[in-house]
Amino acid sequence: MKMSVSPIENMGTLSSDLFYDILKRLDGATLASASCACAAFSSMSKEERLWEDVCSSMWPSTKRDDVKNLISSIGGFKKFYADCFPLIVNTEVPEFRWSDYPEYPEELTEAEYYGDIDEFENVSPSDFVSIVDIRYKDKTICSKVIWGIPNANGFNGWFSNCPFRIDLFTFSGRGEDHTGGVTLSVVDGLPPVTSMERERKDGKLWQELRDGIRLSWIVVNTKAKQAANLSSWSPLGGQRHWPTDNDFLLRFGSILPAKDILPCQMVECILAMKFRVTEASGVHTTLELTELCMQLGDMDGAHVNGRNSLLVLKEALSCNRSRNYNLALESCHLYSKVQNEMKEEKMRYESMLDRLFILGGITAFVTLCCYFLRAFVS
């Protein structure tokens, strides 16, 4: 029996409940597109409840009551999604040479050389909140929230001058049990591995992990009411069997502007994730998440200190973003290219200095020998 469907001549004849039921089934990108389809969709897409559902689906951490209150205080869920779904894109990476980096004037301190101390005093570690979610093959395996910067007790202590670092698994947040215990197994979709020797040959477990893992690390500035996702969603790279045979290191991140903060004008936000194979016996293959941390690195490969990192994070939350993952990936590759070229130039410069010192030493030795020879002859 063939069923006939009568066409709808007027969208206005449909109930608003039906419209709402349609919209609440959409993801964020589709919901944003649907809001442009008609006046009814446009009006209903402004409902915060719809965007709350979208955010809780994409970032399970936002289901927490304290995070909901935070998002409401900085402009609501629709604004939060618009700020955090696109990835940070920074294609204007300067083509610096190593010799372009200025040295510190001896009469100035580092803080005075780098910029406005008053601006730094307006930035507090307690202003920042980290909202972290990890997925493997669309299944959430970890959700954490960190309020403030761990162990940053004042500006005049070690935090300002030591390398900046946030380690997710050595900090106990509000109402959280930070005992670790984040694992992946064959049940979660991992391929069975009979032995690590076999894995070193075919790399199947490593490939599945790289292809399936996703990381979101959102930083919120509660004072400026701004938020941004500093992760690249997918891994930018990694290392197999490092530092031990049972460890897999994955690297995520983004390129952040540091104009008027650091001489290199750009820094890399490095999000390092480490898994360890705790069992490799076929169906009992298990990976444990042992480390997830954030650091900022400059063009020279050095880690940025706490003082400058706070200023960089503050500026990063207002920089350009795009929904095109390829653009974000391109900016990271461009940064790595310039960084490698700078390292090579530095090595050539240092090699040239070594040759000059050797040549100078030989010249001084020959001159000294000639002097003593003349003195001996005379």
| Total of helices | 13
Let me know the average pLDDT: 81
Sequence stretches where pLDDT stays below 50 over 5 or more residues: 1-6, 103-108, 110-117
Structural class: alpha+beta
Helix-strand sequence: HHHHHHEHHEEHEEHHEEEEEEHEH
Q: Tell me the quaternary state.
A: single chain
Describe the main β-sheet briefly. 6 strands, antiparallel
Distance between the termini: 125 Å
How much of the polypeptide forms β-strand, as a percent range?
15-25%
| Radius of gyration, taken over Cα atoms and rounded to an integer in Å | 27 Å
Q: What is the helix content?
A: 25-40%
Number of strands: 12
Global outline: globular
Give a brief description.
The protein has 378 residues and is of the alpha+beta class.
Written description of the protein model:
The protein has 378 residues and is an alpha+beta fold. The chain is 38% helix and 21% strand. Strands 4, 5, 8, 9, 10 and 11 form a six-stranded antiparallel β-sheet that branches. A four-stranded antiparallel β-sheet has the order 3-2-6-7, sandwiched between helices. It has helices spanning 16-23, 28-34, 39-44, 48-58, 65-73, 77-84, 110-114, 117-121, 158-161, 196-202, 204-212, 306-316, 325-377; strands at residues 87-88, 128-136, 139-147, 166-167, 183-185, 213-221, 226-229, 237-240, 247-257, 266-279, 286-297, 321-322. It is built from 13 helices and twelve strands. β8 (237-240) and β9 (247-257) form a beta hairpin.
